[in-house]
Amino acid sequence: QVQLVESGGQLVQAGGSLRLSCAASGRTFSRYAMGWFRQAPGKEREFVAAISRTGGSTYYADSVKGRFTISRDNAKNTVYLQMNSLKPDDTAVYYCAGREGSILYSGRYYLREYEYDYWGQGTQVTVSS
């Protein structure tokens, strides 16, 4: 099993930047594809970004493409989400998630909550207008 702890969320003005971190402990981090999800007040949790076990493949939701960048450092057991050009609509609790194995199957990326087995507790990001 792997334990995930997010950090880096805070209040930021629109147009600003933040970098979220997710530290993993437990089993070998490099065995896990990782993802970021978010949940805004009154809304369902949604996919944000995912990264393969080696970091060589990434995938983004259309709403964040070109603004957010997911990356990982397997030596530090950490996955990151760099968020630029933040908008008030990005306000949400951001969750880190992991799944053992590949990021995709038969050309389809794993984007759904139930496809990830391990979750952090979340970190709040608030973007003011």
Descriptive tags:
globular, 53% strand, mainly beta, 4-stranded antiparallel β-sheet, 13 strands, 129 residues, 7-stranded mixed β-sheet, single chain
Characterise the protein shown here.
This protein is mainly β. It has no helices and 13 strands. It has strands spanning 2-7, 11-13, 18-26, 32-39, 46-51, 58-60, 68-73, 78-83, 92-100, 104-105, 108-109, 118-119, 123-128. Strands 2, 4, 5, 6, 9, 12 and 13 form a seven-stranded mixed beta sheet that branches. It has a four-stranded antiparallel beta sheet with strand order 1-3-8-7, with no helix packed on it. A two-stranded antiparallel ribbon has the order 10-11. The chain is globular and about 40 Å long. The mean pLDDT is 95.
Number of helices: 0
**Biggest sheet character:** 7 strands, mixed
Q: Please tally the β strands and state the result.
A: 13
C-alpha Rg, in Å? 14 Å
Low-confidence stretches: none
End-to-end separation: 40 Å
Class per helix and strand makeup:
mainly beta
The amount of beta strand, in percent, is over 45%
How much helix, percentage-wise, in residues? Answer: under 10%
Mean pLDDT: 95
Sketch the topology as an H/E string, one letter per element: EEEEEEEEEEEEE
Shape: globular
Break the fold down into its secondary structure elements and pairings.
Layout (H helix, E strand, L loop, with lengths): L1 E6 L3 E3 L4 E9 L5 E8 L6 E6 L6 E3 L7 E6 L4 E6 L8 E9 L3 E2 L2 E2 L8 E2 L3 E6 L1
Parallel strand pairs: 2-13
Antiparallel strand pairs: 1-3, 3-8, 4-5, 4-9, 5-6, 7-8, 9-12, 9-13, 10-11
